[in-house]
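Fold this sequence, please.
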Amino acid sequence: MKVTVVGAGAVGASCAEYIAIKNFADEVTLIDIKEGFAEGKAMDLMQCASLNGFDTQITGVTNDYAATADSDVAVITSGIPRKPGMTREELIGINAGIVKSVSENLIKYSPNVIIIVVSNPMDTMAYLAHKSTGLPKNRIIGMGGALDSARFKFRLAEALGCPASDVDGMVIGGHSDTGMVPLIGKAARNSVKVSEFLSEERMQEVVEATKVGGATLTKLLGTSAWYAPGAAVSAMVQAIALDSKKMFPCSALLDGEYGLSDISIGVPCIIGKNGIEQIVEIELTDAEKAKIQESAVGVKATNALLD
């Protein structure tokens, strides 16, 4: 298993670190446009190998896509991150050109690669990767839902006063502050619906805190978060590497599912060795259906900016 991570910044390096520590990949290649940056990050991470007990080989290169040849999975984190007060949608102008160029370079050297898109606005960048590469839709995955769901579970555990391992919950819809649809009605603590423990008001607070989870961190940190995004990506890469058929909400290109077409948006997917192996259509309430339709309108409006 060879994994390429494009962009050696905080998210990319975090992703490479978690992949290495989990020890399921033979090789991770970090690539960045900044001279020596990926090489330095790779060296720093490799100096953790004996301390953290992993055998994955991490190498870094500057803008040399030949070094990414024969990658099984590639993660695109490159592009400018959010600053305080910015929406993910405001990044589209610069990041669209980067994602298109990166996707084409990856496929040139790894024609069978599965691509995971992290760059924002994520749903639109995943859609762009589909349209610019023509790859089968199972081989391009947008990461956002896995991260949003992890943030949802954090907020649920916080509200319930319980371990995060006790909690299950999912966020579908667009990866944006207004487009996320946390499925609070389906969230549970060890199979018991959270509505048994929390008031309607407290559940709504959890939903709203989840939707602005990224913006909250950006305000605190002065830039986008990186630990949880890196962990979310590594979990998805691991599911592909181990063919674990794990379910993640992620941005998939839809063709009629959930009544939506020609759009990449967050829905539950089974992830295995072929990438997206199944889009799972779950039963939604009328309110949830309305929210995902509304979210799709917002994503399509952002997609229109690509033109």
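The mean pLDDT is 95. The radius of gyration is 18 Å.
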